[in-house]
Design a protein that fits this description.
Elements: H1 7-21, H2 28-39, E1 44-45, H3 46-53, H4 61-73, E2 77-81, E3 87-91, E4 101-105, E5 111-114, E6 137-140
Parallel strand pairs: 4-6
Antiparallel strand pairs: 1-3, 2-3, 4-5
Helix pairs in contact: 2-3, 2-4, 3-4
């Protein structure tokens, strides 16, 4: 009888299946960046991802940028704009990851997904306008900064 898999290992295996289904390769740098995102309970900046990789698989900063963009392109991660004009990245933990809100701490910058906050799929716009993306970010103080 085998050992039960950790939740993160299950998520990594599911992501690997989605990558193979898309006809893509999971290289060592891609796997390392994906593992960092899946291990985090908050959205991470490029710099934070690169810092996390310093002790493991060596990945240069340009490769980290490319891998993050690749993960977003495959819908394995999503990009969150920050007030500081720095993108933050969070792993999409399932294939049905849809529109949702985020909470950003105005003190420390921590950003978390608010899966239970519905983002309206339709926004009433002036005649002739068509939405392409809706982003909702709640700002305040996280539990650590409060």
């Amino acid at each position: 009888m085998g050992r039960p898999r950790s939740h993160q290992a299950t998520q990594v295996a599911a992501a690997q299946g989605r990558i193979r289904a898309a006809g893509e390769r999971l290289t060592a740098p891609r796997a390392a960046v994906l593992a960092v995102l899946l291990a985090s309970d908050t959205a991470l900046t490029h710099h934070e991802v690169a810092q996390s990789l310093r002790t493991g698989t060596p990945v240069d900063r340009v490769t980290v940028y490319r891998v993050l963009d690749w993960l977003v392109g495959l819908a394995l991660a999503h990009r969150i704009p920050g007030e500081d004009r720095t993108w933050r990245f969070r792993a999409n933990r399932d294939s049905a990851h849809g529109p949702h809100a985020h909470f950003t701490c105005s003190s420390c910058g921590r950003t978390v997904c608010l899966e239970d906050v519905a983002v309206p799929p339709r926004v009433r716009l002036p005649r002739g306008f068509r939405p392409q993306k809706v982003e909702l970010t709640v700002q305040g103080l996280c539990a650590a900064c409060h």
